[in-house]
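Project outcomes to date are best conveyed with an example. Our students and postdoctoral researchers have been running inverse folding experiments weekly, and each run begins with a structure described purely in tokens. The record below, which covers 644 residues, was selected by the lab manager from last quarter's runs and is presented without edits.
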């Protein structure tokens, strides 16, 4: 398993994964007998038996047994293994905690001292285990409570279905902004530590993407949509995707500037809408994969620009929501909070909206000349607005909802393709947003034509602080800040044949750096050292697989945040946070009951504050020392780095 701590440069011995052919037991007890240096004997109910390579339990203390269907015998088999273990270990297997994979049964047992993973061949008449496909879907600037399964009123039946038949992680964190999130997501490291690493300057084989590691294990990797990883700017050449379709964000969802395998492509703009084009390419990649590699697994990284500004959507989608938001953002927050509480997602006091927490890049006079007097640049109570302002703001939220709705439709098309190809049940699907909804207001490209139909290619609207705060209900602040509203992601995990527990919440704190080790374990317990060499630093995240069968906490020392001079650290139930808006005065919150960050305990627990501040400082230095080749983006973000 992968450690969350940075490792010394010496090579660690790889822990061997199991190649198992044990049939499914009739009872809830698996007995491992006569475990010695030379062999491992495994009995199941004295008659059901199999063989496997045993390895030690994970650093977190979780023990796994993986049992593959199809092999039955009346005697005990044995084979060599690489670890010294005690005799006669027993692993109780609770059927309630099992989750199923194709031709196998995963089970977690906390009392065992050994760990089994089956991701490959069986002997004799055993069926070969087919490793799961991986589909990673990322939305752009989608609020924590925008989807229906996280309390929203927007029509998201496909996302809701994934949640109803999967898991919802309620305390999953991102990096606060598009590029740090995507860099961390692709590499498994906190953004501050990731070195610039294109194909031409990777002498230390650092950094590498998930695709690099998966390809070493026989996966075929594809990327379609937004990329935005300056540390490895070309998804095909630098990040190792076999085929990529990069949609370059400009100032319109209707005007293409797209790249195929890193080369600028000639894309017809007639009828073009970015989310649809991204899905078309993804489906084409899936079809080609099925035709060329029908028995081999794939990794598809599907990333939408939706609902990032400018607010633009097909008119038929906007029409569905044109009257929905006229009651305003205050009412919308109340409605969403009520549903979140009924779901058990947010049983705490909601954040207080701060009018000063707004984000404007350009001069406000310029913006007023562009958008007119109906734009609202900071939060105010809905009833204080003019009727014209209410209409304008409600229209913007309708477009935002239409964009989320359209993205859900496109996700549905992708899922249908998986169903048609027979791959849906054996595909692990992750859905998340790259950061919280944004309060920013700006204009780019050709500007904003007030006479054009709202939401069309000639308009350039931003959601703004009022409805963005409602989209992040019940959390504090928004994109860029590292308060909960900026860094909280509605993570959904679905795996038709792999999850026994469905439609359940997972409350463990987690971070997007955890997805790389999770995916690498799903793909066969891939060890980065075997691919990248002895000097490769340990991934910062931890596998989330132990939380799949039950709502348990993944033990970790910290979760770290640092973006554009906004800083935070979470350790167990505690969180410290500060920003330029707060004049860098640190606050301390007990997040276990106060994710709204309403009760600052810094003066009550000064020792806890100091302990965490010292930890944040030491981590910052550690990550900076690890990063020998920072990007210009990291420097401009305010990350302290070595001189070039």
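After processing, the design step wrote out the following sequence:
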């Amino acid at each position: 398993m992968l450690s969350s701590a940075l490792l010394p440069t010496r090579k660690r011995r790889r822990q061997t994964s199991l190649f198992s052919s044990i049939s499914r037991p009739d009872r809830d007890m698996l007995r491992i007998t006569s475990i010695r240096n030379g062999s491992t004997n495994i009995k199941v109910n004295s008659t059901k038996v199999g063989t496997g390579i045993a390895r030690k339990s994970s650093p977190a203390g979780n023990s796994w047994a993986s049992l593959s269907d199809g092999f039955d015998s009346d005697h005990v088999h044995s084979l060599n293994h690489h670890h010294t273990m005690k005799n006669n270990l027993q692993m109780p297997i609770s059927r309630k905690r099992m989750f199923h994979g194709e031709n196998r049964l995963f089970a977690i047992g906390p009392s065992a001292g050994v760990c089994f993973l089956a991701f490959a061949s069986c002997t004799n008449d055993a069926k070969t285990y087919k490793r799961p496909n991986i589909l990673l879907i990322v939305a752009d600037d989608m609020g924590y409570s925008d989807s229906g399964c996280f309390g929203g009123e927007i029509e998201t039946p496909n996302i809701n279905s994934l949640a109803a038949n999967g898991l919802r992680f309620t305390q999953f964190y991102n990096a606060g902004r598009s590029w740090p999130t995507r860099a961390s997501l692709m590499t498994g490291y906190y953004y501050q530590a990731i070195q610039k690493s294109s194909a031409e300057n990777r002498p230390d084989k650092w950094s590498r993407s998930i695709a690099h590691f998966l390809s070493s294990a026989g996966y075929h990797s594809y990327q379609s949509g937004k990329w935005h990883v300056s540390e490895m700017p070309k998804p095909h050449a630098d990040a190792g995707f076999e085929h990529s379709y990069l949609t370059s964000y400009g100032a319109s969802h209707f005007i293409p500037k797209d790249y195929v395998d890193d080369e600028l492509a000639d894309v017809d703009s007639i009828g073009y809408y970015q989310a649809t084009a991204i899905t078309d390419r993804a489906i084409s990649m899936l079809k080609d994969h099925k035709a060329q590699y029908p028995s081999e697994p794939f990794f598809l990284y599907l990333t939408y620009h939706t609902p990032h500004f400018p607010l633009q959507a097909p008119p038929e989608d906007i029409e569905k929501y044109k009257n929905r938001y006229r009651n305003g953002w205050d009412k919308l927050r109340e409605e969403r909070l009520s549903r979140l509480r009924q779901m058990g997602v947010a049983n705490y006091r909601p954040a207080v909206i701060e009018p000063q927490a707004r984000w404007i890049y350009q001069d406000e006079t310029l913006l007023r000349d562009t958008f007119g007097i109906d734009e609202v640049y900071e939060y105010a109570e809905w009833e204080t607005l003019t009727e014209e302002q209410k209409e304008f703001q409600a229209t913007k939220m309708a477009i935002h909802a239409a964009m989320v709705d359209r993205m859900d439709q496109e996700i549905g098309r992708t899922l249908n393709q998986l169903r048609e190809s027979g791959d849906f049940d054996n595909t692990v699907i992750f859905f998340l947003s790259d950061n919280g909804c944004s309060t920013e207001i700006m204009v780019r490209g050709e500007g904003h034509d007030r006479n054009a139909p709202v939401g069309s290619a000639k308009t350039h609207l931003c959601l703004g602080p009022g409805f963005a705060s409602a989209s992040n209900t019940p959390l504090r602040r928004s994109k860029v800040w590292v308060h909960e509203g900026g860094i909280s992601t509605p993570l959904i995990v679905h795996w038709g044949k792999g999850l026994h527990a469905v439609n359940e919440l997972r409350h463990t704190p987690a971070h997007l750096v955890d997805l790389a080790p999770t995916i690498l374990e799903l793909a066969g317990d891939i060890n980065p050292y075997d691919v990248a060499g002895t000097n490769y630093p340990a991934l910062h995240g931890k596998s989330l697989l132990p939380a799949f069968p039950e709502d348990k906490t993944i033990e970790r020392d910290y979760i770290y945040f640092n973006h554009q001079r906004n800083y935070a650290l979470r350790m167990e139930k505690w969180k410290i946070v500060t920003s330029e808006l707060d004049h860098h005065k640190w606050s301390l919150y007990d997040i276990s009951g106060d994710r709204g960050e309403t009760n600052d305990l810094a003066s009550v627990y000064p020792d806890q504050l100091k302990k965490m501040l010292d930890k944040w400082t030491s981590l910052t230095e550690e990550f900076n020392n690890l990063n020998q080749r920072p990007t210009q983006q990291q420097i401009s973000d305010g990350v302290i780095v070595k001189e070039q």
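Residues 88 and 240 are 45 Å apart (CA to CA). The first helix runs from residue 157 to 164. The training component of this project remains on track.
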